[in-house]
Amino acid sequence: MEISKDLRHWQPARFPDSRTLEGRFVRLEKLDCSRHGDDLWRVVQGPGSDPKLFDYMLCGPFLDRTEFDSWLTERATGTDPWAYAVVDQKTGVVHGSLTLRSLVPAHGRAEIGSVIFGSGMQRTPKSTETLYLLAREAFALGNRRLEWLCGTENARSRRAAQRFGFRLEGIHRQRLILKDKSIDDMFYAMMDHEWPALQRALEAWLAVENFDETGRQKRTLEEFQSLG
Predict the structure, then answer these.
(1) Angle 65-77/33-45 helices, nearest 10 degrees?
(2) Which residues touch 109 (CB under 8 Å, ≥6 apart)?
(3) Which residues fall within 8 angstroms of residue 14, CB to CB, at 6 or more apart?
(4) pTM for this structure?
(5) H/E/C letters for each residue in the chain?
(6) Are 84 and 106 in contact (CB under 8 A)?
(7) Is the pLDDT assigned to residue 14 strictly greater than 80?
(8) Which of 87, 85, 197, 199 is closest to 138 using CA atoms?
(9) In degrees rounded to 5, what are phi and psi of residue 226?
């Protein structure tokens, strides 16, 4: 597909705001330490918490609640990254958080990052819907490009990016030093003209009729994506 490069009438993207992003399984609320802090502490340090949550993040792991609250407050009050809490629609329990960051409205660019999904939402429709809601919001704000970065050794993040529909653009070697290790970063991205087809596939996969009475999917996301 040939994409027009004439941007004379293009307007800069907008910054996110405090609106709640509503889905079927989850909703994304602007992160608030007082409302979401207790649940998120259980996500990172409670029974059954994922010990690998912070393996590939610049922050954490957090063993001390005071240190965690300080970090969470900084995230909650900042504008870039713009942080969300992932709230279960049925129970109201917070299962994770993530951000829209590296915001460059003048060029219509944003990145999904700092993804913290508790073990209760990993590999479930909740995680897919969370990314869908944030990607939809990013493009609704007028962004032309949505990025996803992860280290070459971060297999879980690579799989998530590829499954969701991000395309690998390249590897930036020795881009970071993370917890005493040199990190090569993989750059994934999707464009605004690619989003409509990806959105249709995601909405079809997330639809009620794609799951049986036990909650098992009938068709995979990849099957819907292949339909274009």
Answers:
(1) 130
(2) 13, 102, 103, 143, 144, 145, 146, 147
(3) 105, 141, 142
(4) 0.94
(5) CCCCCCCCCCCCCCCCCCCCEECCCEEEEECCHHHHHHHHHHHHHCCCCCCCCCCCCCCCCCCCHHHHHHHHHHHHHCCCCEEEEEEECCCCCEEEEEEEEEEEHHHCEEEEEEEEECCCCCCCHHHHHHHHHHHHHHHHCCCCEEEEEEECCCHHHHHHHHHHCCEEEEEEEEEEEECCEEEEEEEEEEECCCHHHHHHHHHHHHCHHHECCCCCECCCHHHHHHCC
(6) no
(7) yes
(8) 199
(9) -70, -15
pLDDT classification of 228: cutoffs 50, 70, 90: confident
Which amino acid appears at position 141 of this protein? Answer: L
What the block records as the tokens of 48 is: 């059954």
For residue 161, what are its two tokens?
A: 């990016």
Task: Say if residue 3's pLDDT is above 90.
Answer: no
Residue 196: other Cβ atoms inside 10 A: 10
Q: Are strands 82-88 and 167-178 parallel, antiparallel or unpaired?
A: unpaired
Tokens of 44: 């990172």
Find the radius of gyration of the CA atoms of the chain.
18
Distance CA 11, CA 116 (A): 32
CA atoms within 13 Å, Cβ hemisphere of 176: 15
